[in-house]
Write a structure and sequence with these properties.
30% of the residues lie in helices and 21% in strands. It has one domain: Rossmann fold. It is α/β, with parallel strands linked by helices. A nine-stranded mixed β-sheet has the order 1-9-8-7-6-4-5-3-2, sandwiched between helices. The longest helix has 19 residues. It has eleven helices and nine strands.
Length: 309
């Protein structure tokens, strides 16, 4: 049986705590990212893909290490909310990745001038509830996670593999907030799609805990792929310290410790799962606080989040 590691992860990224929010604010994409200005360690290719229903256009940056690929191909990190993720990746981080086994980075965002397209991500990153309409607290339509994940696997994944050699045995998908919810849904419903799944501050409350309905069918599988799941939350989130009260019944449909409870349940069933609680971090700060160590650990230059150093 796998052992679940509970640890308060300190010293990974020095960030001020942000208030716990159901959705990140739609920050403007005003500053150029490392993909725009270039890097001594990575080259960048841009890909544009339209959703099957024509309603969303994805802006995808593929960051390819300049260092030669290993024989089996590069490790690969798929990042949801790709524009916001790229805004938190700089040349210093890419240099640290280059010092190890640098991964290909696939940042999946949306065309436009915002780091977060709140309407598009609300649809793409949320699963379809078994009963009732798929809308969030602000009335934004959701329920498109399965269609989105299929697009990643069937359309974008092959195009990435055509452009650069990647090692499927070292593939990772990361997401934060609604993105973390999508990653968790992927781990439970299509665990063969990636090797490692990192869900940071997943919005477990969405759809009145709809994603938790995925757990029983996942555990009932006669056999499960050799996946690794990491669940990360901020200390401020768990403590319930927020700049605004959350009283909507959807928000309160799951307890604050639901991520840890889920990790305990999965570990008890033999799943390779890690749980990390990051000191001083609120919901917003968890984006960078989880992303940076995730990339460094994939490059094998730092411990994985949720594990002892």
């Amino acid at each position: 049986m796998r052992r679940l590691v509970f640890i308060a992860v300190a010293g990974l990224v020095a960030l001020a705590a942000a208030p716990a929010l159901a959705q990140p604010a739609p920050a403007p994409r005003t500053e150029p990212t490392v993909a725009d200005v270039g890097s001594a360690y990575y080259r960048f290719e841009r890909l544009s893909v339209t959703s099957e229903d024509g309603a969303r256009v994805y802006r995808i940056w593929i960051a390819i290490p300049r260092k030669a690929a290993p024989a089996a191909g590069y490790p690969v990190a798929w990042l949801l909310d790709g524009d916001a993720a790229l805004a938190r990746i700089d040349e210093g981080l890419l240099a640290r990745l280059d010092a190890g086994d640098p991964p290909v980075i696939v940042a999946v965002g949306y065309e436009g001038d915002r780091q977060f397209d709140v309407l598009a991500r609300a649809f793409d990153y949320t699963p379809q509830p078994a009963d009732g309409p798929a809308v969030d607290l602000a009335g934004r339509p959701g329920g498109g996670a399965d269609v989105f994940l299929t697009l990643l696997q069937d359309r974008i994944g092959p195009e990435v593999a055509r452009r650069v050699a990647v090692d499927p045995a070292r593939s990772l998908i990361w997401g934060h907030s609604y993105g973390g919810l999508c990653v968790l849904h992927a781990a439970l419903t299509r665990p063969e799609a990636y090797h490692a799944f990192v869900a940071a501050s997943p919005s477990l409350w969405w759809g009145y805990g709809a994603v938790l309905n995925d757990v029983a069918p996942f555990l009932a599988r006669p056999s499960r792929p050799n996946l690794s799941l990491t669940l990360l939350v901020g200390e401020e989130e768990i403590a319930g310290r927020s700049s605004r009260p959350h009283t909507h019944p959807m928000w309160t449909s799951v307890p604050r410790g639901a991520a840890r409870d889920l990790a305990t349940q999965l570990a008890g069933a033999g799943v390779d799962v890690r749980y990390g609680q990051l000191p001083g971090q609120g919901h917003g700060g968890m984006l960078a606080a989880s992303l940076v160590p995730t990339l460094l650990s994939l490059a094998e230059v730092a411990p994985a989040p949720g594990e002892h150093p």
